[in-house]
Predict the structure.
Amino acid sequence: MRRIFLLIITFSLLFGAITFLNYELEKIDNKLKKISIANKSLEDELSFLKTEWEYINSPNNISILSKEHFDHSPAELMEMSEFMQVLLNKKK
Amino acid sequence: MKKNMNYSKIKRIHSNKLLTISFLISIASVVIIMRIIEISLPSKDIKASSSNNNLIIQSNDRGLLLDRNNRILASNIYLYNLKAYPRQIKYPEKTFLKLSKEINFPAEQNVLKKLNNKKKYEVIISRNITAPLAKKINNIGIPGIEFIPVKKRFYPHKELTSHYVGHVNLEMNGVFGAERSFNKLLKNGENVNLAIDIRIQYAVRNELKKAIEKYKAKSATSIIIDINSGEILSLVSIPDFNPNLSIDSNSDSYRNTATLNLYEMGSTFKIFSIAAAIEKSEINLETKFDASKPIKISNHLIKDYHPQNRILSTKEIFLKSSNIGSSLIALKLGNIELKKFYKELGLLSLSKINLLEKTKPIIPKKWGEAETATLSFGHGLSISPIQMVEAASILFINNKTFVPTIKKVKNVNEINKTKIISKKTNNILKSLMYENTIEGTAQRAKIKGYYIGGKTATGEKVNDKGLYDKTKLVSSFLSVFPINEPKYISLVLFDEPTLGLKVNQSATGGLTAAPVTANILKKVLPLLGISKNINIEPKIIIKNKEKINLVSF
């Protein structure tokens, strides 16, 4: 009889411990899920910012901005002789 | 008495023990039963929702589309729809005023009317609100409204990449362009690097936009391809559309003219017919042909656009773009050989490009003498611009297994190359193409300091009566650069261009597509890392791997 009691108590303690561990695990799991959601949310925000950055930096927008603020034409390669001519003309 | 007392004491102790044991057993039983119940219950759903936001964790977002330099072409963003619950709103006017300070409601939306409509439980009053604005409005604390997150595919470059990148439908399935071609990969969350270079695409589109207005053309098409890897660096089809807005699939702007439109290309076909004839040793550059008068084959009268009225050499036939001459060359070669060569160039079958929007060429049902003659200068066979680029690439890279692709190629396969022509023929073609920009029909494509080779073409479109219409042209220019060691091929094509009423000239390829190509290449060549040469008139040096062969002209 005593053995049975001991066995039942051991099992109940074991199950009690398992239940407690399970509870703790669930708590950690919930935390992890919350972190995952926060992470996903940050990833989405980052993706949005990257896309926004891409939009702002699109060649079309850069061209509009450059026309508005600098009015520079795109750089072209120049030969040394042409370059010298530009310099000489400026000196004159 | 004492014995009796001891007995009752023992009995009390025993009953206490029994009580403790029963208590422990009952607790243990409760724990065991609870555990059994817990184990037997189904496991909880992995998906979790937060009280702060309603976003569901989805590990498989649609993958991004990136250009060859990792610039975003298509991405996923969360936007918010603003929902109102009219029955919960006590003061609709006040709510409307507060909201209209932050959101610009179009008058036709009748937002106030929607807020006043107590019959409806919920109404959407604004769509596609960005996260920062949604947060700002949320912080005001207006009762009776709620933000619902929605996922959207966003194309930051709008019209610039429309036909190349394509778009998705409401179910986020690719239905056009690269979105369609790589739908499976993208749906699995994989990012795909496309071959396109957004800087080149912009430079090309910008010039084409200017040109289409100048020449009042129906459409404009341009393709730039890396012939070593087969990567399409730029593909522009104007008119185009903004994939971020609602799309009308029946409109002209939706049609990818580069892969779907079929044209009788015209004189660019002379590259192929002359190449075939030289390769089969039927002719050389000095072989003479009588182009002194038009020739009649069956019911076809073949004439020249700029009649020379004399005997021409093969070289002159190419440089003067003589239809009579190329017809005579093709007739000498024979219909079987010409057809075989065109077949090897892929001109008689569907393009191998990995874009799914493409059309089969229209091939003549009968291939007799007349067809052989007209097909030598690109009449009677309708192909798409991508097929023209594909065929030219096969010829200049000298590889039958060449395949054009819109996906970035990591390693170029140098092993599986099957030659279509000899090195000698290849060198002759390069020299002809280069000379054509120096003193032939393509002089307007010449750029100081660069080796550009090219061939102009002007095809006439067939009208409703089935006759060729001189007023409706298809003008194009095919260029190969640097022609001494070909790396890239470009095609610029205008559908029905005009030069205006004051100019008494037709809008030929030499007058329209060639100068536009020059304008494009001036911007694109530095981006491709092709350096300018110091010599004003560069002398071409063609390297021959079999033996050193310096060719200058």
Residues 173 and 183 of chain B are 7 Å apart (CA to CA). Chain B touches chain A through 41 residues (CB under 8 Å). The two ends of chain B are 141 Å apart (CA to CA).
